[in-house]
Write a structure and sequence with these properties.
Helix 3 (44-58) packs antiparallel against helix 4 (82-103) and helix 4 (82-103) crosses helix 5 (111-136). The chain folds into two domains: 1-33, no CATH class; 39-171, no CATH class. 57% of the residues lie in helices and 0% in strands. It contains six helices and no strands. By secondary structure, it is an all-alpha fold. Keywords: Membrane, Transmembrane, Transmembrane helix. This is VanZ like family protein. Residues 1-38 are annotated as: Disordered.
């Protein structure tokens, strides 16, 4: 029987290789902890939120078309059109998810590159919003437009701003 190339007096075996990056307190055979998630995992939540936004954006809206900004299914509350509120909220959440995914890259950001990351989160979300509005144009039950794309961009900006304000408030305590 030939000797196993992963074990023997001249080389480490598989268990030694697996434990090389583990701390002494980890059980034998434990995989090393990863402090930075790989790209697949850190972009999973933003991708799911983007898919949800897309699905909600292309489905027919029940009772739409009353002309007063609301509908039988979605009345106007507090003077804010429910469709504007949904645009603001949806793209605010998407922008925060994008920001967190960008920040999870594991690199330390200088002040200038930090601003680029914030801008990237807003532009990713706003660009996605513009694309969704374009996809709505050929749908007879939806209407895509520049105003809605602008509201999407404002929602993305507000989401990042509120997230940063909350983080700043927590740090100052």
């Amino acid at each position: 029987m030939p000797p196993d190339p992963d074990s023997g007096p001249n080389g480490p075996n598989r268990a030694d290789a697996m434990n090389a990056d583990c701390s002494a307190s980890d059980p034998p055979g434990a995989a090393p902890e990863r402090s930075v998630p790989d790209d697949r995992h850190r972009w999973r939540l933003p991708a799911r939120v983007a898919l949800l936004v897309l699905v909600v954006s292309i489905l027919p809206v029940p009772g739409s078309g009353t002309g007063d900004g609301g509908s039988e299914a979605f009345p106007v509350l507090f003077g804010l059109d429910p469709f504007v509120a949904s645009h603001l909220l949806g793209y605010a959440i998407l922008a925060v998810c994008c920001l967190r995914a960008l920040e999870a890259g594991g690199t330390a950001f200088s002040e200038r590159s930090r601003l680029r990351v914030l801008a990237a989160a807003v532009f990713l979300s706003a660009g996605y919003g513009a694309l969704v509005e374009l996809l709505q144009v050929p749908l007879p039950w939806r209407s895509g437009g520049a105003i809605d794309a602008g509201v999407n961009a404002v929602g993305a900006f507000l989401g990042v701003a509120v997230y940063l304000a909350g983080r700043w408030r927590n740090r100052s305590r």
